[in-house]
Amino acid sequence: MNGKWQFFIDRGGTFTDIVGRKPDGTLVTTKLLSENPESYEDAAIAGIADLVGVPRDVPLPSQQVETVRMGTTVATNALLERKGDRVLLIVSDGFRDALEIGYQARPKIFARHILKPSMLYERVVEVPERICADGSVELPLDREALREVLEDAHQEGIDAVAIVFMHAYAYPDHEREAAVLAHELGFHQVSVSHEVSPLVKFVGRGDTTVVDAYLSPLLRRYVDRVATALSTGGEKTSAKDGTRLLFMQSSGGLTSAHLFRGKDAILSGPAGGVIGAVETARAAGFPDVIGFDMGGTSTDVCHYNGALERTFESVVAGARVRSPMMLIHTVAAGGGSILHQDESRFRVGPDSAGADPGPCAYRRGGPLTVTDANVMTGKLQPDLFPHIFGPDQDQPLDRRAVVKAFHGLARRLNDARQPEEIAEGFIKIAVANMANAIKTISVQRGYDLAGYVLNCFGGAGGQHACLVADALAIDSVLLHPLSGVLSAYGMGLASVRATRTHAVLALLDNDGLGKLAEICAPLEHEARSELSSQGVQADAIAKQAHLRYEGTDSSLPIPTASLTEMRENFEAAHQQRFGFISPEKEIEIEAVEVEAIGGGAPTTGMNSQGSVDLYEPEPDTHADMFTHGSWYNVPVYRRANLMSGAALDGPALLIEDHQTVVVEPEWRASVTSKNDVLLTRARRRRVHEKIGVEADPVMLEVFNSLFVSIAEQMGYALQNTARSVNIKERLDFSCAIFDASGALIANAPHIPVHLGSMDKSVETIVREVGSELRPGDVWMLNAPYNGGTHLPDITVVTPVFDERGKKILFFVAARGHHADVGGIAPGSMSPNAATIEEEGIYIDPFRLVSGGRFQEDAARRLFADAPYPARNIEQNIADLKAQVAANEKGVVELRKMVRQYGLPTVAAYMGHVQDNAAEAVRKVIGILQDSQFALDTDQGSRIEVAIRIDRKRHRATVDFTGTSKQTETTFNAPEPITRACVLYVFRTLVDEDIPLNAGCLRHIDIVLPEESFLKPRYPAPVAGGNVETSQTIVNCLYGALGVLGSAQGTMNNLTFGNERVQYYETICSGAPAGPGFDGAAAVQTHMTNSRLTDPEVLELRYPVLLERFEIERGSGGAGRWRAGDGTVRMLRFLEEMECAVLSGFRIRQPFGTDGGAPGRIGENWVRRHTGTLEQLHGSDQTTLADGDTLIIRTPTGGGYGKPSADGSS
Hints:
By secondary structure, this protein is of the alpha+beta class. The chain contains 25 helices and 54 strands. The strands form 13 sheets. The protein has an eight-stranded mixed sheet, with helices on both faces. The chain has a seven-stranded antiparallel sheet with strand order 36-35-39-38-37-40-41, sandwiched between helices. A six-stranded mixed sheet has the order 3-2-1-4-11-12. It starts with a strand and ends in a 16-residue tail after the last strand.
């Protein structure tokens, strides 16, 4: 030590934690409220003053302080609260709304009122400029137009500008010109995308650039304030011996204050927790770590397996950030998470009581929370918890109020459960939620947690650590002496890092390695220089290439090495993460990350006492604690009184300064030579958990979460192993699990039209294959007249057998929209098809995997030996393999569940979750009235629906009698589609969060007239039924119910391609209005939620140029509440293509509701390269030449309610 203080600070949203290293090397800590303006201006400075021992209102003695290392949520809070600086966004011509539209998906698929995050920029302006994917200049930058918009904004007081031009990651000349001009005109904050995030994807890079411009000025003001306070006499100094101020970046490295910028600050505080968890676990002898940071509002979890894990794409507060950030998964389960209940189901969160009013026990009249459940069970003892409550902040936790509230809850439930049993049930649900979050970052990504340690920190972690570890089969839990302030301590363990990233986009071959080296050299120089400018020498340079199979979107970080080593390491990593490799595919270098590391950590851990003798300590007191269904009188130990070598058996309570640690039964706690508390399993964990088969509201929620978690893990596997853009990027797929009869149990929230119809595909397999089903077999089908919907949607079904391979227990299925399955037009959705055979290859149940062997030759023959064969069989095969892999993930997880809980329990709860959904829908039916509605389509068909309510039987009949006969067009909708639509609509009527499963239809009867276009007969074409008629059916149902206005009534399906490439997309319009709310602009609605391909990725992979994709303001139907605005999309083709459009409401306007005005009709045009305009029909097919431009103008929904007297909405 050099005789000076060092400080490590985590300025959180509620508390600021400070660890001080005194001149003699000892560590001290303090904790302050982050905001307390009556007492101090800044918590970090006040805390430093307190520890150094000077009054808060005098300048700090900076000569006594060597360094301050800080993580801060200042930027995160500004992002959450939308309190950053005013920003002007400048984009390429045609892209003013690209960030608002994003990838067009809605966040909650069953929400009637769709909410989108607000934009960070105040103003967006297009300027004439355009560079193509190959670097050619389509349109030079118009400097005068740019100057005009910059001057206008600056004169109005905007001082921050974000500049985002198409393909600037590779061709930044226009952005550089624009930045120079912005600086010349006096803008103090100029963020340009090629510097902020030089990676492909216009939307993510654009959002990141706006985030940087929005947050950097605010961050700079905060940094300057802290730097000023740390300077001698209150004045900033650059003296060599002055206090060194470093900030933690989201990527896990420190940087000097003057280099700290907005895009790198979003996970500044949590990143310190990751470093703290990793380094303290390493010092304790654990190389593999799960970080578990449970606070008041949420829980952060992270995974470490030898390397810090980062992600290049994150979504924070609605903003997509494409910049290196620590991979931290957050779940809304903290001490303040509110407890919800009804007679059949308990839930925890996601809402939180916050700090005010806080939990019930905080004496402010708050609701029951997880903290209160721990008070009720005695896991938090008021006498042993800080007395900081009440008007004078001197009262203990209010146990009496908690007991009274839980007794009231027990009386309402009236099912003989005691209050403490109810409280423990809620704790069990919270633990399941947190364990599932940890599975997301570990098991789901191919890691086996055997041998890992759960490094627990945060104020609420210790109460739940043993239970979470048990849920994950982890046998060791570590609690560092500073676990209550570990994020702050992690700042002291971190290194100074300078990181550079850049797109490469080259194959992994000798030429690609040459390009990689060419790109790395200047990046390494920049990173070394950045460290050098901070007075730090680079001790190490880390280079990682982000590799992926060509045409996919899932890259893995691999250290740069020889060609052979990189290929081998990539394949090993791919095998671990995704369960397979594809040696036949080329490997692509997507991007490179270069990091200079130096500065070392000023502290490397707590002092060790060497070997210690074990002893059994005397408890300080005893307390009553309820756990595992019983009351125990447990010993209570104060952590400060335990020396190294102390060992004690659970159940017990361990009281630390900042948290309570619960040592559960069958666990043992010991104090190590490093003064860590190590919790270990004292007895082998029971493999089988005994739970009855009767419905229990606690276990109902646990199983709900488990079932959905399995479907989500399947979806993750499918997305990351598929090859096609449709599945990987547009996410046009769905995964689900079913019981032995084929009834839907749970699904991941994917595509609604899939979710409500997949069970019919499973039922077809059960009915037609039946006794032929064998272990190791996987079947597929797409037959619309035999359980399918339309031909591009191929469903892959896997039976799950018992351990002996005799009895089918469940089914898992994955449905994906294949880009092409043959037919008379690329994309297999031709509007000109007269029969279903002209739409593509019709697949009745087909054995895709036999005895564990993928039947590739047979599958290839199926796709090739047809009147209209598939155009990209390699892609079909690759996506089918991905669907098989996704199913296998589901099989593995379901078998784990059976081993843990037993088959009778799992099967029973598959029934109970359906019962719960059925009851929720039954309640909704009880408040509905008889109603009817009719809707005419552009094709001349009519949908009629009558909804009749039988209150005595609590049933609804949805009767489509009167609907038109089947048509010669492709708009016929097979029966499963209408069923999916009814299921979707009635699910949206339930406001609580219930899973979509077969129970939702239990109280609903659907009547469909034979040979109508909602129940056609073979061989009528059906391509448009799934994607078009489904939207019209939903509009018609809402028209009858009157609870929501009309949406656009179409998906605006666009397919194009030739023998080389095929592409499919759907195009969003506005969301429907409803009672009390306007519709959101430009977002997917109802039966689809597929994403759009990023504009830059689209142009890199396909011979097209996206001229324009914008919101047409004011286009939504008028009314008291206005429908969301529609869009216009213009695609220019760069080589000849066949193009098909399937769309509706080009003739008829979407209706208005309750006096609202109708929406506008849509339009389809082609602007030929000769300059002539040609209007297409709603369903049309044409050949597009090089230079032709397709223009899609979407229809919009109608208004809801009469407009006001002055004509305004």
